[in-house]
Amino acid sequence: MKIIFDCDPGLDDGIALLTAFSYKGFDIKAVTTAFGCSTLENTTRNALRLMDFLGRKDVKVAMGAFQSMLGKTDIAPYVHGEDGFKNINLPETDIKPYTKNAAETIYETAMESEEKITIVATGPLTNIGTALKKYPELKDKIEKVSIMGGAVGIGNKSPVAEANISNDPEAARILFESGIPVIMSGLNMTFNALVYDDEIEEIAALGNKEAKLGGDFLRAHREFYRKQNFAGDPPHDICAVAQLIKPEIFETVHCHVDVETKGEFTRGETVADLKNKFGKEKNAFVAVGVDRKKFIEFIKERLSAYKEG
Ligand code: BDR
Ligand code: CA
């Protein structure tokens, strides 16, 4: 499967990238970055440091949006620390970002590929929205987009809006209205995909440097959720990767999703029509359940794979 990984690393993006790069069935062509967990400068630096750590200097890392399509920006140092990789000790790198920006890179990579591209998106959808708006023919080259984003009936930026969608509702709307199938792993599911403290330590102790780093990401992410009285850590972004490798971990409903861009109280809400009340064309597979044990097995399996080289 040819992949572009669009992200805002970010602690949970960090471990999601580790799980994705461990999978031989993925041919990851580019990593594209956006603001979100931290500033664009920080998220790009983090993606570059991670590629160096993984020995993947061959992968294009393209800088994307520093703000939303309407020019707004918001970051989350209270979750991901000042640099986006809170408390994580990753060496600096001399790898430079790719010469083209994220939207151009998504377009170029998709057009160059004979087979259709699959996108994993774990940040605000600005790069994808911008690319689809600028290059209308791009949609025919994209097989599907697996996003961590949105929620059914809950939120973390507002009572009903999740951060990645809330950071750029217009961009999210472009994607959901594009006709490209979207797999949506939202907070209603990811808040149940918890990694407990003893499991974090088991992952960290799997015996290779990638798993050790994965444990560091989970521990650092857990700090915020411990304060929120969660029983474990929800590493949201891993779900968008797992949906493509082990979809049986999740229960999904094929339905129509609208993105609210105008609501006085509901801007950024993903309105999932689970019961088909509007009768509109189905554009998304919305996750409504997760087999938590299988999710933990998935993380362990992926991070153990690095042992095989
Ligand atoms: C999402 O927002 C980001 O902070 C996380 O990395 C995740 O993608 C959770 O709402
Ligand atoms: Ca993210």
Automatic annotation (TrEMBL):
One GO location term (cellular component): cytosol
MF-aspect GO terms: purine nucleosidase activity
InterPro entries: Inosine/uridine_hydrolase_dom (IPR001910), IUNH (IPR023186), Ribo_hydro-like (IPR036452)
Keywords: Glycosidase, Hydrolase
Domain called Inosine/uridine-preferring nucleoside hydrolase: residue spans: 3-297
Pfam families recorded: IU_nuc_hydro
Domain of life: Bacteria
Gene3D superfamilies: Ribonucleoside hydrolase-like (3.90.245.10)
GO BP, sorted A to Z: purine nucleoside catabolic process
The protein's name in its UniProt record: Inosine/uridine-preferring nucleoside hydrolase
Species annotation: Sebaldella termitidis (strain ATCC 33386 / NCTC 11300)
